[in-house]
Amino acid sequence: MAGGFAKDGAVQEQIDATIEDAVRRARERLTKGESLADCAECSREIPTARRRAVPGVRLCVTCQAEQDKKAEIFSGYNRRGSKDSQLR
Ligand SMILES: [Zn+2]
């Protein structure tokens, strides 16, 4: 019983390691030369941690939040617009 359990665990560990390795490799490839050191909007330095977390990052946290807000307003406006046309 104990032997079988250990075997299963070893296989799962191998799968996890393979996925982790693939993710790490894909992330490294994406990050290379794509993330900007300075924000494309305000030219403020983008923290290294953010550049690592977001491959190909072009905006600092502040400008990204502004863009997300704009996108939210835009999609909300679209939704409201389609609701209005349905009511008419
Ligand atoms: Zn910025």
What structural category arises from helix and sheet content? Answer: mainly alpha
Strand content: under 5%
Radius of gyration: 22 Å
* Helical segment count: 3
Uncertain segments = none
Question: Total number of β-strand segments?
Answer: 0
The main pleated sheet reads as: none
Q: Measure the end-to-end span.
A: 68 Å
Quick check: average pLDDT?
Answer: 78
Helix coverage percent:
over 70%
Overall geometric form: flat
Question: What's the short story on this structure?
Answer:
The protein has helices at about 1-30, 50-55, 60-85. It is mostly helical and about 90 residues long.
Description:
By secondary structure, the protein is an all-alpha fold. 72% of the residues lie in helices and 0% in strands. The chain contains 3 helices and no strands. It has helices at 2-31, 48-53, 61-87. The protein is flat. The chain starts with a helix and ends with a helix. Bound molecules: zinc ion (ZN). The site of zinc ion has 8 residues, from α3.
Key attributes of the depicted protein:
88 residues; mainly alpha; binds zinc ion; single chain
Write the layout of secondary structure elements.
Elements: H1 2-31, H2 48-53, H3 61-87
Bound molecules: zinc ion.
Zinc ion is lined by residues 39, 41-42, 44, 59-60, 62-63.
